[in-house]
Amino acid sequence: MERKLIDGKLENTDSTSELIKQSADEISHLAIDIGGSLIKIVYFSTNSKCSTNDEAPTLPKERQEVPNGDLNHHILSGRLHFVKFETSKIEDCINFLSSKKLQQCGAQCHHSHTVDKIKIKATGGGAFKFADLFKEKLGITLDKVEEMESLVAGANFLLKAVNHEAYTYIGGRKEYMQIDQNDLYPYLLVNIGSGVSMIKVDGDEKFQRVSGTSVGGGTFWGLGKLLTKCKSFDELLELSHEGNNRVIDMLVGDIYGGMDYAKIGLASTAIASSFGKPVSENRELEDYKPEDIARSLLRMISNNIGQIAYLNALRFGLKRIILGGFFIRDHAYTMDTISVAVDFWSKGEAKAMFLRHEGFLGALGAFMNYKDGNADLMPLQLVEQTPKSSSCIVDRIHNSTRVHENESGAIDCRLRVSSSFKIYDEVKRC
Ligand SMILES: Nc1ncnc2c1ncn2[C@@H]1O[C@H](COP(=O)(O)OP(=O)(O)OP(=O)(O)O)[C@@H](O)[C@H]1O
Ligand SMILES: CC(C)(CO)[C@@H](O)C(=O)NCCC(=O)O
């Protein structure tokens, strides 16, 4: 039985090995974001194995010509891929990287000087924490890119360059938006990872982290794990679908004898106190259903983030709140709760918007950083979304509780590469 790479994990499968196919790709550049919970990788490959109508784009003639007669640059056409791993299973990530050409070759060249030259852009706390491990196991030096800077660069890139990247989620429906580039700034970027960062973005490299909260994705997963005994994040999310938060949350009606508190605009069904019901009930944890706990927990954390985001938007007069991070996970109830919170508190003035490549902002931003310094690499222009990506959109619309993660959302693009920029080429030669 073969093993297949799904969502960054190797799983058994009878079909052709995705991993082997991926290993055949020519990876020219790769960036990594090592967070508290997840490792995200973005890599550009020039030789993706695709189905018939899913091929890497052919460049129109004029785009193949070197801009400004600059003979030191050439253009690569290919695809940006997105993969993630759990940080606690960093070995899987190391094995994945080992399976790629750069690493196979790196291993062969263990005693040559070339190994020292492998440098990849890396962001997130793990770029510091695991720097020695990458050096020791893979011979790779992590070239660190500041985390907030990466998040902002990734978000700006997606918002400007990728069609239908951003969407609102209202009443169970997604509405894709194309934001006018001239009207993008300022906005509030809310990245919901293990913890939450809130960044006021004013321009391309102009931003300020204005707030944050430690009650984020790590809280949902950590607390949820303890309270429900779920074995995975997805299991916990799944469980929450079947739950009823009213069994755990104390509602306004519970306090007001079934009545609304109309004077201050609170319906009887509004939550007065998250997780407040057990206070007045003589019941133990085991007496509550795990699905109800999961539902309340998800609601509490999403609502809280929505409210803090709104308050920060209000603080700086921002109308647009863009949310990223893997906590969102394209999950209907999460997005609905955040959207409703923003809408409720702002009285419809501010909008919560989500991103299709939600969890990859940091990794994408680190990838964009290759252009810095030597100005060697830059995404030129995105070609149309691949059918694969389009079907990903459709999947999301029809099955909005779950994203098809592995490799979905791959983006076709072109890169301008300086001939002096050959970190992996050097390795390949050996
Ligand atoms: N397979 C998964 N395993 C663990 N957490 C997951 C998974 N899928 C989604 N999540 C959620 O995503 C969160 C992590 O999101 P993300 O990868 O954006 O942040 P991070 O970079 O790990 O965290 P930080 O930026 O705070 O260091 C987790 O806390 C959890 O809520
Ligand atoms: C510490 C980081 C930036 C690491 O990604 C993130 O987890 C976070 O923003 N936490 C919230 C910390 C706070 O502002 O209270």
UniProtKB/TrEMBL annotation:
E.C. code: 2.7.1.33
Molecular function terms, GO-annotated: ATP binding; pantothenate kinase activity
> Which top EC class is given?
transferase
Q: Which organism is it from?
A: Nicotiana tabacum (Common tobacco)
Chief localization class?
cytoplasm
Gene3D superfamilies for the chain: 3.30.420.40, 6.10.10.60
Q: What family does the database annotate? A: Belongs to the type II pantothenate kinase family.
Pathway membership, UniProt: Cofactor biosynthesis; coenzyme A biosynthesis; CoA from (R)-pantothenate: step 1/5
GO terms for cellular component: cytosol; nucleus
* GO biological-process terms attached to the record: coenzyme A biosynthetic process
Q: Which reaction does it catalyse?
A: (R)-pantothenate + ATP = (R)-4'-phosphopantothenate + ADP + H(+)
Q: Name one Pfam family in it.
A: Fumble
Q: Which keywords does UniProt give here?
A: ATP-binding, Coenzyme A biosynthesis, Cytoplasm, Kinase, Nucleotide-binding, Transferase
Could you tell me where this protein is found in the cell?
Cytoplasm
Q: Which lineage do the record's taxonomy fields give for this organism?
A: Eukaryota, Viridiplantae, Streptophyta, Embryophyta, Tracheophyta
Tell me what this protein is called: pantothenate kinase
